[in-house]
Design brief:
Layout lengths: L3 H6 L1 H11 L5 H28 L10 H26 L4 H22 L4 H13 L16
């Protein structure tokens, strides 16, 4: 016997079958309809997987202005983290904190690598030159108590 979920998924197929035949579907008819619907679903999934395998993502051989700015900021963050790591190693900081900072630094580098993986070498070198001539500042802030009412 068919489950409720199967009947709900096949309700459109059942309605079409009933209109075509001019009568209500019997349990035997339902089993045939459900089987045909399941076969169609598996066929569609298989074809979808084939299409996905055939599709090659379009290589992006340029970066937008915003992407370039983000990479420059990530490079500045990576350099800032490296400075903190070097300073903390000299002062014997907690190894767990050092490990966390190294992990964060690694992930920043991986993100930058992923963003630039399809770029030609000339574009990458141009990006490095651009980053070298830019100055990135981190806005400092202070914590203040809320004004008492």
């Amino acid at each position: 016997m068919a489950t409720i979920a199967e009947l709900l998924r096949a309700r459109n197929h059942i309605a079409v079958w009933e209109q075509e035949h001019g009568r209500e579907a019997t349990p035997d008819d339902l089993m045939v309809i459900l089987y045909n619907q399941k076969v169609d679903d598996t066929r569609e999934k298989r074809e979808s997987k084939k299409r996905m395998k055939r599709k090659h993502p379009k290589r992006k051989e340029y970066l937008t202005k915003r992407d370039k700015e983000l990479i420059i900021v990530m490079a500045a963050c990576a350099q800032g983290l490296q400075n903190i790591i070097d300073e903390w190693q000299e002062h014997d900081q907690n190894p767990f904190l050092l490990r966390c900072l190294r992990t964060a630094n690694t992930w920043i580098y991986k993100a930058m690598e992923w963003m630039t993986k399809d770029l030609p070498e000339r574009e990458k070198m141009n990006l490095l030159r651009t980053a070298a001539y830019n100055e990135v500042g981190i806005i400092e802030y202070g914590v203040r108590r809320a004004k008492e009412a």
